[in-house]
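Page 47, continued from p. 46.
Same chain as before, 299 aa.
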Amino acid sequence: MKALQGTRPGGMERKLFKQYLIMVLPGFIIFTVGLIIPTLLAFRYSLTSWDGLSAQKPFVGFGNYLSLMKDKNFLQAWWFTIKFTIGNTIIQNVMALGFAVALDSGLKGQKIYRTVFFMPCLVSSVIVGFIWLKMFCNVLPEFNELFGTNINFLLFGSSSTVLSGLLIANNWQWVGYWMLIYLAGLQSIPAELYEAAKVDGANALQRFKNVTLPMLAPSITICIVGITTGSLKVYDLLLSSTGGGPGRSSTSVILQTYNTAITGKQFGYGSSMSVSLIMALLLVAMVQVKALKSKEVQQ
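Result:
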């Protein structure tokens, strides 16, 4: 009897382990096939001058990576991507937090506003690109004739304004999504903290600074990391709206990678671009998470 009792816990643990393994295995297979294997293959191809079609894959070592440092088109694509990412991260966080605070203040019809703000993120980015291309080229210019104004709405038509147009389109699509994350964080803050702050004589701005922002630290981490990494991967919005133009003024890293690997038939060189982007994404995410998590701990 004692021997039987001694074997039961071990048998139960093995049974639970098998159950956990069965539940985790599908996700692990998808993650491996969809991310790990393609990344390893991309790194392998990045060490070659393969054109993507022929059977020969001439080995060039790290020559492709050295060429990237001198490639003006690739560096220009990175510069646009960085500007787009910084603009998105700042604007979307500020607007999403502002809308969330407004909706959390007991505004009438807040459920309708939530739905309206959230709906654009359900639309494909390709469709969003077409929508705003039509808006800037056909719809908004009609207001000049209607009101007798002379506002330049053709933002996609100039290299000096194309970034602004893309930021408007992207923020229109995604602000509502991040707003809901901030709103969930706001609604999880205990009301007792605000009451205690009022008793201490804190005004609305002081309560926001000393209560709201510290308690929203986890939501801020999620939003900043999510917006940053998403902006670094921008592709479909550009493809359907500007095509990377005018000229090359709105060509992102991923769009440049596609043009090089597929259109230019330089698959090995394009793979080195994709690997550099993956490394940048990992580095940025790790630095942001570490920095923002430390703020959470301090709070």
